[in-house]
Amino acid sequence: MSAIIAAALLLVGSLFCLVAAVGMLRLPDTLIRMHAATKAGTLGTGCILAAEAVVAGELGITLRAAAVIVFLLLTAPVGAHLIGRAAYHRGIHLFHKTW
Q1: Which residues make Cβ contacts (< 8 Å) with residue 46, sequence separation at least 6?
Q2: Residues 6 or more apart from 23 whose CB is under 8 A from it?
């Protein structure tokens, strides 16, 4: 049963990471790209780490995975805010393609 749960979490996490990558490539604005990378990337990584915790089944690995998920949830919005603020102050937030 844990293998099915882990497989589902890996699939969902991979799809969210794919959405984040496509969002980084396709979205026109720096602020919108930052939003896609932060939200979808954090959720995808969290699901993948949760799958690792389910598969391992050991308390130490589960606690480490939980700590990484909490750290990611706390730091990703702060990093995204700083990136958005820097882009806004540099004036590159409006439809600036980098490629």
Answers
A1: 13, 69, 72, 73
A2: 32, 33, 36, 37, 40
User: What's the pLDDT tens digit per position in 73-99?
Assistant: 999 888 888 888 888 888 775 555 555
In one-letter notation, the amino acid at residue 12 is V
Check: CB of residue 35 under 8 Å from CB of residue 80: yes
- Count the Cβ atoms, other than its own, within 10 Å of residue 42: 20
Distances (CA, A) of 11 to 2, 5, 21, 42, 95: 14, 10, 15, 15, 32
**pTM given for the model:** 0.80
Check if the beta carbon of residue 47 is closer than 8 Å to that of residue 57.
no
Rounded to whole angstroms, how far apart are CA atoms 57 and 2? 9
For residue range 13-56, what is the model confidence (pLDDT) as tens digits?
999 999 999 988 888 877 788 888 888 889 999 999 999 999 99
Q: H-helix or E-strand containing 70?
A: helix 59-90
